[in-house]
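Let's do one together. I've listed all components of the complex below, 927 residues spread over three lines.
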Amino acid sequence: MSELKKHFLNINKWSNREIHNLITLGEAFKHGKQVQLKHPFYAANMFFENSTRTHSSFQMAEKRLGIKLIGINPSTSSVKKGESLSDTIKTLQAIGVGMVVVRHPKTGWYEPLEKDSNIHLAMVNAGDGHGQHPSQTLLDIMTIHDEFGHFKGLTAGIVGDLSHSRVARSDGQLLNRLGVHVLFGGPRNWYPKDFDTFGTYVGSIDKIVPKVNIIMMLRVQRERLSKHDAATFDPKQYHKDYGFTEKRAKHLKKGAILMHPAPVNRGVEISSPLVESSISRIFPQMHNGVFARMAIIATLLKNRNLLLD
Amino acid sequence: MSELKKHFLNINKWSNREIHNLITLGEAFKHGKQVQLKHPFYAANMFFENSTRTHSSFQMAEKRLGIKLIGINPSTSSVKKGESLSDTIKTLQAIGVGMVVVRHPKTGWYEPLEKDSNIHLAMVNAGDGHGQHPSQTLLDIMTIHDEFGHFKGLTAGIVGDLSHSRVARSDGQLLNRLGVHVLFGGPRNWYPKDFDTFGTYVGSIDKIVPKVNIIMMLRVQRERLSKHDAATFDPKQYHKDYGFTEKRAKHLKKGAILMHPAPVNRGVEISSPLVESSISRIFPQMHNGVFARMAIIATLLKNRNLLLD
Amino acid sequence: MSELKKHFLNINKWSNREIHNLITLGEAFKHGKQVQLKHPFYAANMFFENSTRTHSSFQMAEKRLGIKLIGINPSTSSVKKGESLSDTIKTLQAIGVGMVVVRHPKTGWYEPLEKDSNIHLAMVNAGDGHGQHPSQTLLDIMTIHDEFGHFKGLTAGIVGDLSHSRVARSDGQLLNRLGVHVLFGGPRNWYPKDFDTFGTYVGSIDKIVPKVNIIMMLRVQRERLSKHDAATFDPKQYHKDYGFTEKRAKHLKKGAILMHPAPVNRGVEISSPLVESSISRIFPQMHNGVFARMAIIATLLKNRNLLLD
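Okay, and this is what the predicted structure of the assembly comes out as:
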């Protein structure tokens, strides 16, 4: 048996069994399970990049678990005085904070911190640069499990701006590991070559749609595109070439579902009415996000012996 | 009987009876009334425009009612990624937020949302563009009721920058509806013609002061004045022409009170010592604001069957 | 007996006995003491200058005491509309806030407010301009007391940018008053002449280190240096001339400790590995900060008869 996880940072370090346990626990929270803290427990959420859904979802998960929050606003904190992330986290630890949830533009921000023997509190990765967004990946996986009850034999198509998506890489890797066949669509110059290790580049959305149980559309992150791509990007043309349209939706298999990590550019990657259609799991994904995050946090608390039995 | 209100958006949609019930409930909260939620209830306050008093007053009302808050900072949220207000609200709803309190620069921001069958949570308008500020209107009305015990037969004078005041229009309309005689003062070019439907333009503050039971002074919102008005605005001259001065205060009727929605430009629209004088209800207005907002929120919760009897 | 303190603003107004009582109470909180509020109590923290540790430490202290917080963000509040600090505080008071914790760039921001008979709530100074940072001073004093059990006969060296440090002045004054011999080090042009009234300027860190029980290093606040000093400041040269290095640490007396108000510029005023060495009390200072602030707040609450016996 592997060591009990003290942090939730890189989902590739969590075994299939551990992932299944998180899903099961998330589903239990969704059906009303409650846990109790042994002592008052304090957390701080530090979002160095914009976020509504992830930040508010973590807050909701924490409050539902009875965790108290210390408010930190990175834009007005000592980070402005040049303090390192490591020293900020040690400060919070000294003050009595037991967990930090961090979104930071630096890929792998947590790597030096994991190795620092002076850091004892729990760390949760809410998104690191071009790296992962592992709690999003967990909620995506949980949404698929909710729908189909299993992973083996399913086919998922992930379509869009693959190169700027933290979600595409970690979702693709984990889906592949759990037995899902993964296809990628979108412009070839947005396809990172290393994705070949966990999926197949198809390109054309029209070829992908009829084959999949899950069509996962990605947000075109115009603020992250290269200067040239941003200048020449034509939303209407993109919608025509790679958007999930009502016409394309008709070619989905029966029972197939539409996912998107949101926020959606309505009318660009997805035709607006489909966002709230019967095949869409976009808002259910957000709903599951709270329970997935409760599962993540409760698992760390349990592994640290901070929950009553 | 009209349908139970699910939102608090436009005070003109609330009948006289409903307004009286809100006032009665607000006064009960002021005298210690408590209510109990059936289940944990979560709200989010989204202020897309600056506010101290309205924002903190809503927080206090929510906390006194036992509501838990999910913190959203519009300046660092996905709104920055171009997400619509509607999609932000649907996200919060998916996460388990049961009420949003919104201040937004767009007049009538709530109109399309009210009609959207996918929005189920309670919405409260904390100020919409050039539209209303209905919770301010309710606390003003409650302050007048506290003082006089009735509305019929009273005269109120509203003086100042009428064209940029969300408060002037909705206070004037509601006071008129409740039987108060409403007079308007201030420069003619700041008087919106449609105010004729619920009051009378007098102009001169000296003609208004001796006639009124309530003198309501408005803040000169220099940040909202036209370029020309802002450039030529002379605070000293304005104070002389339209300010509520100690000399003018002597001409008030016995028992008349001074109101102002605050923040006050001391020495511009009101002589500074009058702000905390015995005739002033400016800080009591703020005090009542908490109870008025508790009444608004508790009414929505009751109408949604979320309170224990 | 002096009057019971209603505010915590200027530590020089607190007698030796009162300081000792705060330390004793802080140590009691550190060992698990709890207090109970008679009624729900609401506070607001207003930080008009950046802070992580002070702001989060106050939050933690307040939450541990069961105080509820009303969130105010000065950068999006009515202060932006030109409202005075005094009127903002009166607004919060009207809304039911019982305590404000304020950090403000104006030296002595609290002086006019203390005298204002319309302000009744408790005020705590979390740093005023070039004035004091009295809760930091209390936690420093508490850390020294924790270590040595007494003050008389100790020698403390305070080294660095004395002129821009709120901590240096109030720590120096209080240490001197409590019987500690105070030495100052650092460049002469950063030494304020009035420090002579409570300590001795030595200058050279090498002369100071062997004499002291406490070496307190100050942050070089490059953002506050004069244009000329900021342009010519050479961190490496400063480290060589005035930094606390591993070589210098060897000349400390047995049992001597290293302190710093943080955030530390690692490699400038202190060699990085020393920050977490066995002689360092830098993170314990932060840990004590929570209990020192609990003691401050609980004392004000007790003096206002707001705690159960």
